[in-house]
Write a structure and sequence with these properties.
CATH superfamily: Vaccinia Virus protein VP39
CATH class: Alpha Beta
Number of helices: 6
CATH architecture: 3-Layer(aba) Sandwich
Low-confidence stretches: 1-12
Mean pLDDT: 91
Number of domains: 1
Number of strands: 8
Bound molecules: S-adenosylmethionine
CATH topology: Rossmann fold
Structural class: alpha/beta
Radius of gyration: 16 Å
Strand content: 15-25%
Distance between the termini: 44 Å
Amino acid sequence: MTDPFDKHQFADQPDYCSNPVKMQARNQIVEAYRKSTGLNFVPKNKNYWTFCNKQPNIEGSEVVQLVKTGFITKNQFFGVDNDLKGEGIIEFNRSCHPEANWFQGDWLEVIEDNFELFNPALVFFDYTKTVVKTSCHIYLARTMNMCPSKTVVAANLMLSDGHSSKRFDPKILVESVINYLRDPQEWIVSDHYFSYKSSRTEMGTFIFTRT
Ligand SMILES: C[S@@+](CC[C@H](N)C(=O)[O-])C[C@H]1O[C@@H](n2cnc3c(N)ncnc32)[C@H](O)[C@@H]1O
């Protein structure tokens, strides 16, 4: 059994699980969902999908945080990670939270292969790419095209790359994604995004809601 408190086994990964800034960013997404839908939690027949990384059984991890606030139950949590470095992320998460749903593989492929399970109320598109990458706009739009009516998609992307002081224009994302949506008229884009700084990188979270 993997030790959930052994941080060394994931030494290459940024620490998303004990970072108060990351926790606050997740709270903002939940608030945005509540504001957008008028619902306080994810309805019973719906689920929550996210790029997961490691999720130990500690307060700062995404699944624990969301379950603790009553926003979802564990079985409504769907986490996907391609685990390109072969760190055993999914196996580890499964051992910590067997009631939740864990998939190893490419995000879009996992969703396409398990489309009968894909019934999200909220999608946390927590992607470590910059807002200016066209490939990322297409990837996000392909995700949004698969979402049912009333889904909220929170796209979390980099506003700077951490290597320079250059800050990208956040408008690029919204203006570009629209071009790749099958039904752009069905999407409401929140008129403001929120941003936070995680280490040296500024992140921006953009909220899209399907009518
Ligand atoms: C920012 S982390 C997720 C953090 C997590 N949502 C949280 O709140 O703690 C992003 C994860 O996505 C994974 N990832 C990146 N591209 C992916 C892809 N195309 N398909 C699946 N997983 C991917 C990375 O391996 C990384 O672990």
